[in-house]
Design a protein that fits this description.
With about 300 residues, the protein is mainly beta. About 0% of the residues lie in helices and about 70% in strands. The protein has one domain: Maltoporin, Chain A. The protein has one helix and 15 strands; from the N terminus they run ββββββββββαβββββ.
Amino acid sequence: MAGWHSGALGTSYTWADGYAGVSYNGYEANYGSVAEDDVRLRMHQDHVAASSEIRNLSGPFRQLKFDFGYTDYEHKEIDNGETGTTFRNHGYEARHRKIGPLDGAIGVQLSQNTFSALGDEALVPTSQTTNAALFGLEEWSVTDALKLSLGARYEHVKIDPTAGGNEKFASAQSRDFNAGSISAGALFKLNPVWSVVGNVAYTERAPTYYELFSNGPHDATGQYLIGNPDAQKEKAVSTDLSLRFASGPNKGSAGVFYSRFRNYLTEFNTGRLVDDDDQPVPAGTDDALNEAVYRGVRAEFTASK
């Protein structure tokens, strides 16, 4: 049996050259796990957001936009009526964008999240992730038929774990990462209804706290997860090409996508069955978990639509 409740409320004020608004949304959920019959998941989230935009300014920047969000999230894994693990995440995000003469955006993004896993079977240590990023996106209409775009993002990520007296996390150390991404694209109109769009991008992603520091049972997935504290950034080169159709209300597209990773972080099943203390157990043992470790591998992804 599962339960789900959610609600949202918002208000805004608009004028000829802009708007300002605030909103709230939240939900509660209580449902079972496909991996374990006796495990239930209870989730609760509150999210508050504020946004404002001012247009038709004088000077080099014609438009300003500001977004702010705060999230309070809690997720409990309950086994046979007892809370085994509690996940808590408190975070905020602020974004300030300036739209300049090239019809684009530049700005700053800041966020900080504190994640706590409580209980004897905590999967990861309490971890605070701080992120500061600069980003930019510009578009240039070369002709009526050709539009070019260029985007870039540079961010600094710091992850601070706290063992909290749990010996299995005693060796967890803070990690710092600098990650950069850049992308370029072009749109060419073949005629008023058909156009060709192509993009190429190089991206980097810092590992998350669970990819670095996991060391415990995850009953919801039936695994014992082990992180890689020495994990490096994910790096990928991606490209896509598509043909688009647009005529009044009728729109459609067909395209292909290709991405190649040099260090794709993924869960690798070791083939061992273990208990909640990561000790080997024979096949057929009740509540046995599949042991999995995070590993960086080369990977390729392709898709068509």
